[in-house]
What we know:
Number of domains: 2
Distance between the termini: 33 Å
Radius of gyration: 24 Å
Amino acid sequence: MSFLKVDNISFNISSFSLKNLSFVIEKGKTLALIGKSGSGKTMTLELIAGIKTPHKGKIYLDEKDITHLPRHKREISIVYQDYVLFPHMNVEQNILYSQKNKPDRDLFQRIVNTFKINHMLKRPVNALSGGEKQKIVLARAIMSKPKLLLLDEPLSAIDFPFRRDFLDFIYYLKEEFGLTMIYVTHNFKEALTIADEAAVMFNGEIIRKGRPDEVLQNPENLETARFLGYRNILPINLLEQQKRGFFSVSPEKINIFDKQKDGCLCLKGKLKSPIDISKRYSIIDVDGYNVFVKAKENAKTKLFICFKKEDIIYLNG
Length: 317
């Protein structure tokens, strides 16, 4: 049974709109919302958190309709990419803010021990590093005992060399505290690491949803393939003249031959560049389209690129 259910919500603002958004999350699971900047990821979090109200549709949490419930009654915490801390409070006061009247001291001590922050509790927050600040924001969010934790690109302000360690830490927190999470990112590698499911957003819509590895291996549509960085996206009429749409074949699955290869699909091409900037691929011109293939030394100018039918990924355009 779904723990969070977003049912056909829509929201319009200026020239942008979320369109009939629907998805579910089971308790204790993590959904990664991925997509380019401006695709609607943060707006979706703010609708779930109660910062904005959908113009259409319903949001259910733990079988309760929270669509119009005030934000402070939703039992949802949202962590933005910026460090939203109270500068006039020290670390301990920031963490306890959500329970300043009757703090749960047992939970507080568990958080302090888990985050290993006992030595900095009395520090002013402006004396903390970026990674330390993000830890305190997460600690405060967990201290509020959320049913649902929303993370909006939590690694974006972390120095690059420390991002993997921080991502592993977030995954550990999920397991340690039994969190249900939505994790927003534009980095698919993060989704592969932390998420049980991934949903790709484009122009206010979810265009692909599934296990992260499934989405990576079979993007299903043109925009998802582009977002994931697929190198070879080609019109299907190169293979079948009467059909419309697109297909992709990984460069690692394509070989260069002097003539057509039995048991393969082959396309005639011309060597455009014997090696690209990565020094891994040759670039072949096939009817005006650049095709990346495994680099081959001394390839002839006129050639055939060949691949197996089962290596084709078909894409809706």
